Amino acid sequence: MFSPQGPGLHELAVQALSSVEHGYDLLAPKFDHTPFRTSDAVLDSVTRALTGLGPFERGLDLCCGTGAGTDVLRAVCGAGVTGVDISAGMLAQARRRELDRGAGTGAGAVGPGVDWVRGDARALPFGPDFDLVVSFGAFGHFLPRELPALFAQVHAVLRPGGRFAFPIGAPPPLTSPWYWALLGFDTAMRVRNALWRPPFVMYYRTFRLGDVLRALEGAGFEVGLRALPEFGRRPDGSPRGRLVVATRAAA
């Protein structure tokens, strides 16, 4: 699953026995060489979907990690992009990534530059400054009971008419090896958190579409779904990938 540049088994074990924040600090230098980084296929698909919903001015990447999602915002936002994450190590890697490619200031820069902010998604240090908030692959780090407060934070940092968008995949069927792999991972994490402190919250099966839609509506959003056609459809005709688009009502 990992490239030769990625972390070894011992490194992953040390990270898994840390807190979420410290674990990502440790993983940051090699994060982009793991399957945990959102794939370019997902990023490109979301960019195409958002292009038809704009224009947007200022964008926020929630739980931005090493900054892959900020490339989506740079493509669709005209004025400014901000990435926020709790891990100082991941933000340092994001800044290094920007410097390495000369983004924002030199040759090869596309779209606005990025401001990197260390902060907790559950207590965002912003006012209603953004037209678009995106997030990729971060919601497994929040327990279901935390979603209403998390989505309320996002609602508060959006301008009237602003959008909160993120991709969500269809759950694998019971017959799929992925179903059992994800179930095994979540079970192992629950056992780990029952026996070890500090906890490392990372569950793949707790972010269910029905619960998510109810929590978004409870936070004051108007919610819609858009199929991501690049990922095809399941045998029952439903999309394998969707973009959740939650809109803060216009004033």
Describe the structure concisely.
The chain is built from 8 helices and 7 strands. With 251 residues, the chain is of the alpha/beta class.
What does this structure look like?
The protein has 251 residues and is an alpha/beta fold. The protein has 8 helices and 7 strands. It has helices spanning 9-16, 20-27, 40-51, 70-76, 88-101, 147-157, 177-195, 209-218, and strands spanning 56-62, 77-85, 114-118, 130-134, 158-169, 221-227, 241-248. Strands 3-2-1-4-5-7-6 form a 7-stranded mixed beta sheet, sandwiched between helices. Helix 4 links the parallel strand 1 (56-62) and strand 2 (77-85). The termini are far apart. The model is unreliable at 103-109 (pLDDT under 50).
Summary keywords:
globular; 7-stranded mixed β-sheet; alpha/beta; 8 helices; 251 residues; 7 strands
Structural topology:
Elements: H1 9-16, H2 20-27, H3 40-51, E1 56-62, H4 70-76, E2 77-85, H5 88-101, E3 114-118, E4 130-134, H6 147-157, E5 158-169, H7 177-195, H8 209-218, E6 221-227, E7 241-248
Parallel strand pairs: 1-2, 1-4, 2-3, 4-5
Antiparallel strand pairs: 5-7, 6-7
Helix pairs in contact: 1-2, 3-4, 6-8
